[in-house]
Write a structure and sequence with these properties.
single chain; mainly alpha; 14 helices
Amino acid sequence: MFAIVKSWINRYFSQEEVVLLVLLVLVALVGLATLGSVLAPVLAALIIAFLLQGMVARLVSWKLPHWLAVSLACLVLVGTLAALLLVVLPIIWRQLVRLFAELPNMIEQGQQLLLLLPERYPKFISAAQIDGLFNALGHEVGSVGQTLLTFSLTNLPILAVILVYLVLVPILVFFFLKDSEKLLGWCASFLPNERPMLRQIWHEMNDQVANYVRGKVIEIGIAGAASYIVFLLLGVNYALLLAAVVGLSVLIPFVGAALATVPVMAIGLFQWGWSSEFLYLILAYGVIQLIDGNVLVPLLFSETVNLHPVAIILAVLFFGGIWGFWGVFFAIPLATLLKAILNAWPHQLQLKEAHSEVVEQNSRPDQDQ
């Protein structure tokens, strides 16, 4: 058994590139685990730089100087952040506070509806169980609502950190875009000159991550905007808040749509009850989800995500459990990275073994002579 393990280690870990790859992955994992909060603005800037890289490339292809393309892309970023902070987020915050203020009444109405179940199915559920459930739910909602309503000067340190990030991130994005080739060249100077496996992984991941991040942001924007328009036309309460929930739900494949359905159905049910308006809402929301899953996702990610659904779900659960929101956001790129490593590692090993065999065969005639 020991001989088998030893031969496997000698075969797969005897190359300099493999050892370097393992060290890079370990350093990245340790750095994220220990310095994740410190490096948060840098990681956010890298993500946004991936987003804007396509815009910069397009502007450069239109014969604009690189510095001007980078400057225009950063102006778009600053304008988008200003619109979110000054227009969208205040409306969402007001709707969220109003929702939590009205939740006790909604919970009471829901309790009255569910209390009909013990009368019809006394063997399966009792009134005491429903009362206990809604008492616990009311306590949790009350504590969260109190936190939202008392958000004031006591949270100035958090606001100061957010303001610092709002200044740091655009600056970092500008320099990442402006000096990307210099930064990549500096990082590559620490690597061996001959690194075919690392090059293969880098080229695959560079395209995959950039396309995935851009596609996911486009999907969030389209799903959120379409939902907001539909909710607004139907007269749904908290339209912008629900649209934000629907847009962000696409970050979690398969599960996110189901989770977003709960608040949409709950708001519609408490607003209209079992009426035709409620059915129109559910029908319209179902159409949005169908278009997103069957048209938008294949169109945006047909060449980006080539993973089995089981692998995607496991990646979301694993990386989301480790790194929370960012783990969920990058679950698919991280899973793709693992797949790229598993593809490149044996492939490069087989190429080297084949090359060694060819060299050995070519040297045999010389030895015979």
